[in-house]
Design goal:
The chain has 126 residues and is mostly helical. It contains 4 helices and no strands. The radius of gyration is 16 Å and the shape is elongated.
Length: 126
């Protein structure tokens, strides 16, 4: 059994790689369909929602495989925190160095999600 925090960090790293890969794949798909890497507001938003959903499912499966005590909650929080972090860096989101930063941010986000979920499981002090 992998300790919870280590499982969260490893899962976050893999989800971050998945986020980069799925985003690049989505941009390639838009390029082949529309002739531009942007899908537009409607289809682009749906594509981003699909990527986020896949990342939550992927993270949950990874954490479950690593026997994390709260895979779904940690994955939901980890992906949510990752989305917020990427939104903060929105001006740089298409920079090549972000392919390295996103997995690190995802690992930190999953660690934060793990901390929140682990703390929520503790009984309240008397």
């Amino acid at each position: 059994m992998v300790p919870g925090l280590l499982a969260a960090v490893l899962g976050g790293l893999l989800v971050g790689v998945g986020a980069v890969s799925l985003t690049a794949g989505g941009m390639e798909a838009c390029e082949s369909v529309r002739g531009t890497s942007a899908c537009g507001r409607g289809p682009g938003f749906v594509l981003l929602l699909a990527i986020v959903a896949v990342l939550v499912v992927l993270g949950t499966a990874l954490l479950r495989a690593l026997r994390h005590p709260a895979p779904l909650g940690t994955s939901l929080l980890g992906v949510g925190l990752l989305v917020v972090a990427v939104l903060v860096l929105a001006d740089h989101v298409f920079a090549s160095w972000m392919a390295l930063v996103v997995p690190v941010l995802a690992a930190a986000s999953y660690a934060g999600g793990h901390a929140l979920v682990s703390h929520a499981d503790e009984p309240a002090p008397d």
